[in-house]
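Re: [ENG-882] Designed sequences occasionally contain unexpected residues at chain ends

Forwarding the minimal case from QA. Structure tokens:
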């Protein structure tokens, strides 16, 4: 496997001079990411193109974790000693920051251990019955399929010819037994941004709750839950510069009073007297036990970092990378792109050699070991989608704002040299 060493040229060497002039966002940020200034043993710069799996972490996020251990280790919301006061204040300001980042109220932001955990938590809170229906799309990640499928009857809506959820089919799928519509905002396989606004409107007209899986959307373009009008929304910190082990479940405030806790422990109770329990309201009711404090503080640092750059600038940069990536990759006649590319498409490209027998794992291994390029291959936890299209897995390249045109070129060069293996 690829090995790395700390010394080596800084990443400026991996940014095309023309791009350096025209893309101030990318060139100004690359030095903030320790992994981008490492060099692979291949002699070529390391190229990280597996951002849909997890993004790299900038120095302020790494620093936030170590500051917690070095400077103010304490539990949160449990004490008022000198360290606890620092941590309590920082923790609550993170929640405030995350809330304003997504257009929510502070009390609507529930910290979890990740997007998957958020979806599982929501599925428990909804107290579904076996005959209840949950409508999902064929694009869902297993995390937004299995938790619903394990509790209720899941109905799957297909996409239309352009690669987005077919809204007429969605309308038809909703029946009086439908308790929830649960949809991805942006497919981690196809890269197509979904018409969630329209889907939410359709569901709300029928009085059905809506859950949005925003794992791939958050931190990529502005997402405002109030403007969207969804009831629940989930995402992971680690897909937007933050650490693993932290996620968010947004629950619209007026639903809180209809929900009962499903996890029990410290920090969630205001009073227990003679066995009678009064739960705290707001997020505390859903966050039993000690949270991932250092992770949440680092997540706050990630949100601040993104806010400093600005989501519109990030979205614009991702769009430039998408356009360039498509232009470069779509020229390979030996490759197929099994999923349609919609007009609103993220910088995620999924492709495979035409040959059914080509060993994708082998290809991705060579691209890593010989060309220093980190990619993803397989089904990306979205097997129903692959099965529907009759495709036996694919290679996924997914970019974030710190990626460059030169890195796309490096991938293209690698693919060109590997052409003999495509058969
Ligand atoms: C669209 C989507 N939803 C949910 C998840 C699950 O996220 P996590 O594994 O961080 O819980 C992913 C992860 O790849 C994803 O892409």
């Amino acid at each position: 496997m690829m090995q790395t060493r700390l010394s080596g040229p800084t990443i400026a060497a991996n940014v095309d001079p023309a791009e350096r002039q025209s893309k101030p966002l990318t060139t100004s940020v690359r030095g903030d990411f320790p992994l981008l200034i490492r060099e692979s043993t291949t002699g070529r710069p390391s190229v990280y193109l597996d951002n849909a799996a997890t993004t790299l972490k900038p120095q302020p996020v790494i620093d936030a974790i170590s500051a917690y251990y070095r400077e103010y280790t304490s539990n949160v919301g449990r004490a008022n000693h000198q360290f606890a006061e620092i941590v309590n204040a920082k923790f609550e300001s993170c929640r405030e920051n995350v809330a304003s980042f997504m257009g929510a109220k502070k009390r609507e932001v529930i910290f979890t251990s990740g997007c998957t955990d958020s979806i599982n938590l929501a599925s428990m809170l909804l107290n579904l019955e076996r005959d209840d229906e949950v409508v999902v799309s064929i694009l869902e990640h297993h995390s937004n399929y299995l938790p619903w499928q394990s509790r209720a009857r899941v109905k799957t809506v297909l996409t239309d010819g352009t690669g987005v959820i077919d809204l007429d089919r969605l309308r038809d799928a909703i029946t009086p037994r439908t308790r929830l519509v649960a949809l991805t905002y942006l497919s981690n396989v196809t890269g197509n941004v979904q018409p969630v606004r329209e889907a939410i409107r359709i569901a709300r007209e029928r009085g059905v709750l809506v859950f949005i899986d925003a794992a791939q959307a958050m931190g990529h373009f502005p997402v405002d839950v109030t403007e969207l009008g969804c009831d629940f929304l989930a995402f992971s910190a680690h897909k937007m510069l933050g650490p693993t082990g932290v996620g968010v479940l947004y629950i619209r405030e007026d639903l809180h009073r209809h929900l009962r806790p499903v996890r029990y422990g410290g920090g969630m109770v205001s009073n227990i007297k003679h066995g009678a329990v009064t739960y705290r309201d707001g997020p505390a009711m859903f966050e039993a036990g000690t949270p991932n404090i250092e992770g949440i503080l680092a997540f706050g640092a990630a949100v601040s970092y993104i806010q400093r750059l600005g989501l519109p600038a990030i979205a614009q940069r991702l769009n430039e990378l998408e356009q360039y990536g498509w232009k470069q990759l779509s020229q390979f006649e030996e490759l197929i792109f099994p999923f349609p590319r919609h007009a609103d498409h993220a910088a995620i490209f999924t492709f495979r050699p035409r040959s059914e027998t080509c060993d994708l794992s082998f290809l991705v291994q060579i691209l890593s070991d010989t060309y220093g390029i980190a990619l993803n291959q397989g089904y990306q936890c979205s097997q129903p989608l692959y099965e529907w299209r009759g495709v036996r897995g694919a290679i996924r390249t997914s970019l974030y704002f710190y990626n460059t045109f030169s890195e796309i070129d490096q991938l293209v060069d690698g693919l060109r040299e590997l052409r003999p293996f495509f058969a």
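QA comment: On inspection the terminal residues look reasonable. The chain is about 35% helix and 15% strand. Proposing we downgrade this to a documentation issue.
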